[in-house]
Amino acid sequence: MKRKLIDLIEPFKIKVIEPVRLVSEERRKQAIKEAGYNTFLLLSEDVFIDLLTDSGTSAMSDNQWAGMMLGDEAYAGSKNFYHLEKAIQDVLGYKYVTPTHQGRGAEHLMSQALISEGQIVPRNMYFTTSKLHVNIAGGVMPDVIIDEAHDPENEFEFKGNVDLLKLQKVIDENGPEKIAYVNVEMNVNMAGGQPVSMANLRAVKKLCDQYKIKVIFDATRSSENAYFIKTREKEYADVPIIDILNEMMSYSDGCIYSSKKDCLVNIGGFLATHDKEIFEKTRSMVVVYEGLHTYGGMAGRDMEAVARGLRESTQVSYLKYRTNQVKLLGDLLIEGGVPIVRPPGGHAIFLNALKFLPHLTREQWPAQTLSAAIYEASGVRSMERGAISKGRDKDGNNIFPNLELVRLTIPRRVYTNTHIEYAAECIIDLYKRRHEIPGLKMVFEPEYLRFFQATFEQLPL
What we know:
Elements: H1 5-8, H2 25-34, E1 49-50, H3 62-68, H4 79-91, E2 96-100, H5 103-114, H6 128-136, H7 164-174, E3 182-185, H8 198-210, E4 215-218, H9 222-232, H10 241-250, E5 254-258, E6 269-273, H11 276-289, H12 300-312, H13 316-335, E7 348-352, H14 353-356, H15 366-378, E8 380-381, E9 383-385, H16 387-390, E10 405-409, H17 417-432, E11 440-444, E12 455-458
Parallel strand pairs: 1-8, 3-4, 4-5
Antiparallel strand pairs: 2-6, 5-6, 7-10, 9-10, 11-12
Helix pairs in contact: 2-15, 3-12, 4-12, 5-6, 5-11, 9-10, 13-17, 15-17
């Protein structure tokens, strides 16, 4: 596959570097064993290329670093909060803003403010922390994503779309009063970073308005989603990203947002809304759980970096480079015969562990096994997104979803295309000897979000 260099060239210069080293194969084998074959438990110093997550791992710009020197660290009324508020109003179009220390804080506030015991929060596809916050508040989160999302090889361009018939069924079976809100995630993580179309967002809002049901977005990767709308929905080809974002958010009552992704920062988050009632509820709660409503757990300097990063993330040159670097990794793996989720998504490439390791049973945790094997073979850290992440049902049984994936998440503005090529080369080589990879058994399981801390032992091949 021929690639144009102009589509892959970085739209920036590198001013500061952080040295990395590839530790020996012997050390990698020892390190992953010490970590219980869980890549979350590896030491960062033992990792060569870190594709664990795009959350808080971006490289900030000179403009953002300059802004951090202007941090107003007043406890109340920091000027940086008002810069952040204005950026959110301009870029996303929401009137009211409640800052939080990161997206998880916003999830907590929104869940506690809007969910009553026994209520339902339909979502295109669950995310781990989002679902847990709904459960803790007494709610349940059924998936209402289109069927194409469950097929890794389906090339539909908007696999994050809500299935309106599935959503209608949930409303009909439970009654609108049982629906706390409908939750729509941008660039759906667990489906492979797949975007939602503008047409679908518009249709979801129209349906929910009929029943007076609120729509809340997980807008964490909304800039990347907006770029896919610009490049895949013809009527938006000439529309600026900010205008696309404003229209997207107009089809919601509010959003939760982890600034650690699209805002290109290492920490921060917020909850934003058009609805004054939601704002008043969450603003009163933020002082209990996060901090005063003009900092919400962030330092002034961090709020300034978020404000500037949110604006930077709307630059077409950056978004083109960002999505094309992800696509580069996907294309290289496809050329090497490696099974991935198609089409390549917005923030990561997802390996189909069931096809990569067909000799393993589901109880031998193929995705967890593959993630550990990739590290041992290359020093590249990835993460499991399958049955370990899905967890157990109410009866305590493991849930085995259709998608058993390994996520290779690309930090923003951090790695060069040579790093990407190295990662692809190592994974392709591992695929050629995939039948030599033994499975795992779980030996420790924490109560919540087990993928973070569970440990494993290697089984005999």
